[in-house]
Amino acid sequence: MSLMSFPSLGADFQKGFAAAQTGDFATALREWTPLAEQGNALAQFNLGIMYEKGKGVLQDDKAAVKWYTLAAEQGYATAQYNLGVMYAIGDGVLQDDKTAVKWFTLAAEQGHATAQYNLGNMYDNGYGVLQDYKTAIKWYTLAAEQGHAKAQLNLGIMYDNGYGVLQDYKTAVKWWTLAAEQGHAKAQSNLGIMYSLGNGVIKDFVNAHMWANIASANGNENGGKIRDLVAEKMTPSQLEKAQDLARECVAKNYIGC
């Protein structure tokens, strides 16, 4: 959640933004509060962040909710998303999944990728709505297509298990590869499983070991277990190759592995 600025919003707003950028939140508060009270959605949103994070003011979730709500009601997507988060976790308001869904939906419909992911998760698990895998797939896909790694991971899980779609290992591998290339350890671990079983790809213990090894290095415990199980089925030369590939993959930031 970061402060936002637009050059067309006037000298007072930009003065506040410049002050905030240097850590002078007292000046930012002084410049933005009158604008927010006059209905400036971006000033309202930025005040929400300041109150949520305790920047220049005492941390106050209720005040954050107040300002986020005013901005959200004007259609400001990031305020809608932040407000959805506040309701989902119960910060400054009673925890309320239905209201979280409402705000996530409004932000998601404007193309906010993380709101789309969160909305997919709500439908996936039945939080605040009836569980609906097909709708979860819809929102996960929109977020995944924008490069949201967690959405890519979850979308892969849906295809792997056939939740809301026909089971399709190749498509699961596609989405997990995209998430793995962003460094998502669980997606990397899942690729290790797919290569070890030959699900959606040709069975390949070298690639299985490579991805599982990388996942383990990135903190995924299951990755280490998969790596060690696969290693039992490999020759010393295969192990050496897998370890070489893992080093190369890390050096390439996981792209094109």
* Assembly state of the chains shown: single chain
Secondary-structure content class: mainly alpha
**What are the secondary-structure elements, in order, as H or E?**
HHHHHHHHHHHHHH
C-alpha-based Rg, rounded: 22 Å
Strand elements, count: 0
Helix content: over 70%
Largest sheet: none
β-sheet strand percentage: under 5%
Query: How widely separated are the two ends?
Result: 32 Å
Q: Poorly predicted ranges (pLDDT <50, ≥5 residues)?
A: none
Layout of SSEs?
Elements: H1 11-21, H2 25-37, H3 41-53, H4 61-73, H5 77-89, H6 97-109, H7 113-125, H8 133-145, H9 149-161, H10 169-180, H11 185-197, H12 205-217, H13 221-231, H14 236-251
Structural notes for this entry:
The protein is an all-alpha fold and 257 residues long. It has a domain at 168-257. The chain is 70% helix and 0% strand. It has helices at 11-21, 25-37, 41-53, 61-73, 77-89, 97-109, 113-125, 133-145, 149-161, 169-180, 185-197, 205-217, 221-231, 236-251. Helix 10 runs antiparallel to helix 11 (185-197) and helix 12 crosses helix 14. The model has no long low-confidence stretch (mean pLDDT 94).
